[in-house]
Each structure stands twice: as C-alpha cells, then as structure tokens.
Amino acid sequence: MAKKKNNRPTWDEYFLKLAMLASERATCPRMHVGCVLVKNKFVLATGYNGSLPGQPHCDDVGCLIVDNHCVRTNHAEINALVQATTHGVNIMGTTAYITNMSCTNCAKALIAAGIKRVVVFSDYHDTLATQFYIDAGVEMVKLNMPGKEIHYDLKNYSSAKRTKKSR
Fold first, then answer.
1. pLDDT tens for each residue of 6-49
2. Considering 24, 77, 139, 149, which one is annotated as catalytic?
3. Which DSSP string do the residues of 18-60 spell out, in sequence order?
4. Which residues contact 44 (CB under 8 A, 6 or more apart)?
5. DSSP letter (8 states) at residue 98
6. Could you confirm whether 77 is annotated as catalytic?
7. Is-above-0.85 flag for pTM?
8. CB proximity list for 105: less than 8 A, separation 6 or greater
9. Chain centre distance of CA 127
10. Which CA distances in Å does 43 have to 39, 130, 144, 153?
C-alpha cells in the first residue's frame, strides 16, 4: 500500500483503521474483529464481535464454547449487516473492510447481501471464505496491517487548542 507524499493513509488503510477501531468494542477475549461496510468512500455500517443486545458478554461471564468456537457472540460482519438492515441501508455493491478473514458463515452472509469487495489484513482458521468469495466473484484484497497509531498533532495545528479537560 503506497502512501501519498503527505503521509495521508490510502482509502484502504483509512477504512481498515476504522475497522481496527471498531474491533476495540469487541467483548469476546478470544478474538477482536471489526467490520466496516463502505460504498463510494462513505461508511454505511460498522460492526464488531459481541454478544446479542441485552445478553451477557464473554468479558463478564466467559465464553460459551461449542466445537472450539464461541457461540455467545455475533461476528463483526453479522453485526455490521444487522446495523445496515436496522437503519434501512442498501449495501449492494459495497466493500467490507474486516480486520480478519471471515468465517464461512459470515462470508456467505456478505455474499448474499451483495458485497462486491472484501479487504482484510489477517487470516482466520478453518474457513472456506476465500474460496466462497472467489466463486461468487467478490474481489479479495489482502493487505498488510496498517499502522496502529493515529497521528494527530494538536500542539502544531495553529487553529486548535487543548480543551480544559485534556490538559
């Protein structure tokens, strides 16, 4: 991923960083995953792996393991799809930026929802996602993980000053 000369992240890096940020909300200690659904450089929905609304979280009560998978949580891709559906957002033709390769079921859900491109920087064990994406004509892009830092130089921005709470 080539950065522009002013060190702005590329669009793929930018949206992957947003997926990384979404993953920080995850509540399953086995893996934190974030997903951002984007169309025409516009964020349509986000998701992270976590428990159903109103249900206990793995962080609080432990994982519920079946066949070596935690079944207490919905995966990030499903939660992003649900968020889009809940708000009436059409995601046909979008790109899914995901921190980790999808599991097989999430790949099938994204394909059925009309995703046309998937961008990831990490693989996932025991998945047929890559093959399903290829078979469905979904463009697969595997990139290096973007930098984890957010570069915001408040003291050198002439029009900005710290709030009283941040001093």
1. 678 999 999 999 999 999 999 999 999 999 999 999 999 999 99
2. 77
3. HHHHHHTT---TT---EEEEEETTEEEEEEE-EEPTTSPPHHH
4. 37, 38, 84, 89, 91, 94
5. E
6. yes
7. yes
8. 75
9. 17
10. 7, 23, 21, 25
